[in-house]
């Protein structure tokens, strides 16, 4: 493992994004940035961690990030009045591609380079009380050795020849997140237009793994709710595998 700190100057980061994020904090280690921010933060808050010991992935998976390997952060925003809360994750995926133009998105929000995943996103909503909120967590593989990658089919920015300055990259990502999440909260149609343009799943033959049975077919598009369209049916959740073209 390449053991380094991630961000170095949290005050500089906070100052550079102050027009969008009012409270930016860093911790060396935390169970889950999402859980911690939901418990302690207010809308406009950001939490960055060098290490997550109980991070969460989609569909209940555990995600542990060793120190110095992943940029792990969560942002907390007020939930919009619309019911399309799932679009928050799509917006965050777009923000990643805004700052890493080599990247593409596999539905719903896996960020890929060369077909390999280097980033994941998990959004969670707290709709109780008078001020509903949504937390969006992002983990970006930034500094790994190939032999230490957690799963087959994963990659890291450094392994793809993309070296980052952690502080500058964090500033750029937080600014992009603010723009894309504002589009989501405002119901801006440009968000989904941009998403469809970068989503490599559209037009592909796929297998969608779901608890009530797998689905195979060609992806016809993504609807305005962010659902994937396969064989004329819409699906809001599941794991997508891109299949080889049928000869």
Automatic annotation (TrEMBL):
The keyword Ligase applies. GO terms for molecular function: biotin--[biotin carboxyl-carrier protein] ligase activity. Gene3D superfamilies: 2.30.30.100, Bira Bifunctional Protein, Domain 2. PROSITE patterns: BPL_LPL_CATALYTIC. Residues 19-185 form the BPL/LPL catalytic domain. Keywords: Biotin, Ligase. Its EC number is 6.3.4.15. InterPro entries: aa-tRNA-synth_II/BPL/LPL, Biotin_CoA_COase_ligase, BPL_C, BPL_LPL_catalytic. The keyword Oxidoreductase does not apply. GO terms for cellular component: cytoplasm. It comes from the Bacteria. Transmembrane segments: none annotated. This is biotin--[biotin carboxyl-carrier protein] ligase. It comes from Corynebacterium qintianiae.
């Amino acid at each position: 493992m390449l053991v380094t700190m991630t961000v170095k100057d949290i005050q500089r980061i906070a100052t550079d994004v102050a027009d969008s994020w009012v409270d930016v904090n860093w911790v060396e280690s935390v169970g889950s940035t999402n859980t911690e921010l939901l418990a302690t933060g207010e809308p406009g808050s950001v939490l960055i961690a060098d290490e997550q010991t109980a991070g969460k992935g989609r569909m209940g998976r555990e995600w542990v990030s060793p120190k110095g390997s992943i940029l792990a952060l969560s942002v907390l925003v007020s939930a919009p009045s619309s019911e399309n809360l799932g679009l928050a994750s799509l917006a965050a995926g777009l923000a990643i591609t805004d700052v890493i133009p080599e990247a593409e998105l596999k539905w719903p929000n896996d960020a890929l380079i060369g077909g390999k995943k280097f980033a994941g996103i998990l959004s969670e909503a707290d709709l109780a009380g008078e001020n509903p909120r949504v937390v969006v967590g992002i983990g970006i593989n930034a500094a790994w050795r190939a032999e230490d990658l957690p799963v087959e089919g994963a990659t890291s920015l450094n392994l793809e020849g993309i070296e980052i300055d952690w502080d500058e990259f964090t500033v750029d990502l937080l600014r992009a997140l603010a723009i894309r999440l504002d589009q989501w909260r405002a119901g801006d149609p440009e968000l989904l237009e941009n998403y469809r343009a970068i989503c490599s799943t559209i037009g592909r033959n796929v297998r969608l793994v779901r608890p009530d049975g797998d689905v195979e077919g060609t992806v016809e598009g993504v609807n305005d709710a962010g659902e994937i369209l396969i064989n004329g049916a819409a699906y809001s959740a599941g794991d997508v595998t891109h299949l080889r073209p049928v000869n």
